[in-house]
Design a protein that fits this description.
The complex is a heterodimer of chains A (312) and B (119).
Chain A: H1 25-33, H2 36-47, H3 53-69, H4 75-86, H5 93-98, H6 103-118, H7 123-133, H8 138-143, H9 158-172, E1 190-193, E2 197-200, H10 203-210, H11 214-225, E3 229-231, E4 237-240, H12 245-260, E5 270-274, E6 280-284, E7 290-293
Antiparallel strand pairs in A: 1-2, 2-4, 3-4, 5-6, 6-7
Helix pairs in contact in A: 1-2, 1-6, 2-4, 3-6, 3-7, 4-7, 6-7, 11-12
Chain B: H1 24-29, E1 34-40, E2 46-51, H2 59-70, E3 74-79, E4 83-89, H3 93-101, E5 114-116
Parallel strand pairs in B: 1-5
Antiparallel strand pairs in B: 1-2, 2-4, 3-4
Classes of the chains: A alpha+beta (312), B alpha+beta (119).
GO biological process, one term (chain B): regulation of translation
Protein name (chain B): Translation initiation factor SUI1
Function (chain B): Additional factor that functions in concert with eIF-2 and the initiator tRNA in directing the ribosome to the proper start site of translation.
């Protein structure tokens, strides 16, 4: 079977149940669907004869086609349905063996088949709903394993594809998917250089995300932290002093409040530009408001460390 | 007629900060915030500086009270640009802020005039 190819270590525990063994398939399926009812059905299914598998398969195919048309069905209805079906579940090992590795499709089919066996006309819709609600393995989706494998011949329905698309979009371009309102920047990466210097590694990435120049962010950081520093060869910021990631994050947060978010509409989609008279202006791209922001002032900084020879 | 009576000369700053224009207090003090900063020294030692205290307060007296209260040493530094600045040993930002805003035993300043910097 195909699952032999998959190293068991990569799979989640629930999937590590062996599929090759006809007897254990049931357990794995039950876990995948996360439904207690299904489990119950399984045990009974095992005991059942596999004689009418043929017909069931045919019916299932029919329903599979039908199911495509139906988009939405409430899950609650689905759940109501399931226990009723448990009694006369048949179909089992034989059918599953035909299937290739992924447990998801198997369960879906089995469920359809079950419903079909139950003889409900309404079954098709429910089966589809069940398929939709199924938890997808995020890893599989991202890495293209399981059903997402290139050479996998399994038909993938539209909803699965769509959800995969959004999962990928979410992970790669969080700002494109407008699902969440909160403004996110990647967490600052802080490394220690020697004993008393901190390297802020991803400053360019962060400032690009905020649409601000590195220099401006750097200036602000130095002013707030009351220290100085430099930029190294690979555009990382070297800050004098020991700082933790949390501390840098706090300062960045303040920077965002002060220089990035629009005060009127709270949108982070703004631009910082230098106005006519050496004042900085933040222009909002979503509401069009424009406001001046204070220039970054270092303020008083005390003499720290060794004092140089007093002049004068 | 003295200048006090002329309404037109009553100060209203049209260029005051827009977001904290909550009333008269913001107008007068928008320019002179009190900045509380922190600086790192060697090891885990830090230094707190308080800059821009209103002129009506005697910095030395304030320092004396603060030193006693927060059990830290400190000094008043006269800077050429920033005027007199109070320097305190250790991270006293929270303490100083509370002290400045405390009505009973502190200076009773407005919270909005204070800006705390640092991490």
């Amino acid at each position: 079977m195909a699952d032999a190819a998959d190293p068991p270590t990569e799979r989640k525990p629930r999937k590590s149940v062996a599929f090759s063994d006809g007897a254990t398939i049931v357990d794995s399926d039950g876990q995948v669907t996360e439904s207690a009812d299904m489990n119950g059905g399984k045990s009974s299914a095992e005991s059942h004869a596999t004689g009418d598998d043929k017909e069931v398969d045919e019916v299932t195919d029919m329903f599979a086609n039908l199911a495509k048309k139906k988009k939405k069905k409430s899950k609650s209805k689905d759940e109501d349905e399931a226990p009723a079906d448990d009694g006369d579940v048949d179909l089992s090992a034989l059918k599953k063996k035909k299937k290739s590795k992924k447990p998801k499709a198997e369960t879906a089919d089995e469920f359809e088949a079950k419903l079909a066996a139950a003889g409900g006309d309404k079954a098709d819709g429910e089966a589809e709903a069940e398929e939709e609600e199924k938890p997808f393995e995020a890893e599989d989706m991202l890495k293209g394993k399981g059903i997402w494998q290139h050479e996998s011949t399994q038909p993938i329905n539209y909803n699965l594809l769509l959800s995969r698309f959004f999962t990928l979009l979410h992970s790669h371009h969080p700002d494109l998917s407008s699902g969440s309102k909160s403004y996110k920047i990647p967490p600052p990466q802080c490394l220690r250089e020697g004993n008393k210097k901190t390297i802020f590694a991803n400053i360019s990435e962060i400032s690009k995300r905020m649409k601000r120049s590195d220099e401006h962010v750097t200036q602000f950081l130095f002013a707030e932290l009351g220290t100085s520093g430099s930029v190294d060869g690979s555009r990382r910021l070297v800050i004098k002093g020991r700082f933790q990631q949390k501390q840098i994050e706090n300062v960045l947060r303040r920077y965002i409040v002060e220089y990035v978010t629009c005060k009127t509409c709270r949108s982070p989609d703004t631009e910082l530009s230098k106005g006519e008279n050496r004042l900085y202006f933040v222009t909002c791209n979503s509401c069009g408001s424009r406001r001046s922001v204070t220039a970054i002032k270092t303020g008083f900084s005390a003499q720290v460390g060794k004092r140089r020879r007093q002049q004068g | 007629m003295s200048t006090q009576d002329i309404q037109n000369l009553k100060t209203f700053d049209p260029f005051a900060e827009a977001d904290d224009a909550t009333g008269d207090s913001a107008k007068a003090q928008s320019q002179n915030y009190i900045h509380i900063r922190i600086q790192q020294r060697n090891g885990r030692k830090t230094l707190t500086t308080v800059q821009g205290l209103p002129k009506k307060f005697d910095q030395k007296k304030i320092l004396k009270v603060i030193k006693k209260k927060f059990a830290c040493n400190g000094t008043v530094v006269a800077d050429s640009e920033m005027g007199e600045v109070i320097q305190l040993q250790g991270d006293q930002r929270k303490d100083v802020q509370d002290f400045l805003t405390d009505k009973k035993e502190g200076l009773g300043l407005d919270q909005k005039t204070i800006k705390v910097h640092g991490f």
